[in-house]
What does this fold into?
Amino acid sequence: MTTAFDPIDLAGTPLSNRIALAPMTRSRAFGPGNSPTDSTVEYYAQRASGGLLITEGIQPSVIGQGYPDTPGLHSQEQVAAWRKVTDAVHAKGGKIVAQIMHGGRIGHPDLLPDGLVPVAPSAVAAPGQVYLHSGPKDYVTPHELTSDEITATVADFVSASRNAIEAGFDGVELHGANGYLIHQFLAPNANLRTDEWGGSVENRIRFAVEVARAVAAEIGAARTGIRLSPANGILGLEETDFEATYTALVRELASLDLAFVHLIEINREFTETVRKLFPGTLILNAKTEGPTSAAELKLIEDGTADVISFGVLFLSNPDLPARLKADGPYNDVDPSTFFGGDDKGYTDYPFLEA
It folds into this structure.
């Protein structure tokens, strides 16, 4: 029987176990030009016993920044700063991938150089407010990307992924989940386009597929993964046809031979559908009532998933694999002390992963 503590080959990258650190936005890129600092090095090195570490969301461009003090991978000083992180993780025998995250309509002009506003597939503002140093402010109506700008945005993902490899990462995870740009293209209420990038399922999945295709062509499919969150409703996205959308999307992603899909579970039935459609590694953030726990390790034993990702529990227990193997003890976790006090399987600021 396969267990969570057995090694696994991730498309040529050997992982020591099947326990992953889920991406959790930290908003602590206090270095020059939104670059990580020594505290970031320490944070990831502390958790290097996980089979795979997935970083916080990293913007691929200036316009892709969604929150204050989040890091980028679009300048050489950022690349150099991330190299310290990857070196530290590798020195402890760990593997780490960079999550490339474009905020899309999630962001605010106050975060951007003068004259820039957030961009999106359509000029539809997200509900709610963004947290800024000056206090919360309403999301603004984003600029609708032109076809040429969409092509340029795909190129930004490619450039950031190339920078990730230069910085020593073992690969990248494209953030196609939780209400950000790739996810916005998938959702009918955020993507109102009538051109080749919107409307039908085929057109709405096009951006996600083209980003994945372009990144895989640049750094190799074996070093490229993607995160998906069908119908989780975060940041105002509505996906009533999620089965058709994500079935078509996963089929296309499977044809690209990507290393992994990292699925935020909506229900077990659809997880099983993804499992059948995608031949690569399935990393699962299981649907739970509270933080992901040792109970979810059985999903590896029964073949539901290949790797289980942990957020809150890994945050409070940096040596989590050892504690899981010993069946505890675990440091207490109080989600009410975190950014938004919400612990429902959400990953991104102001939420934390379950």
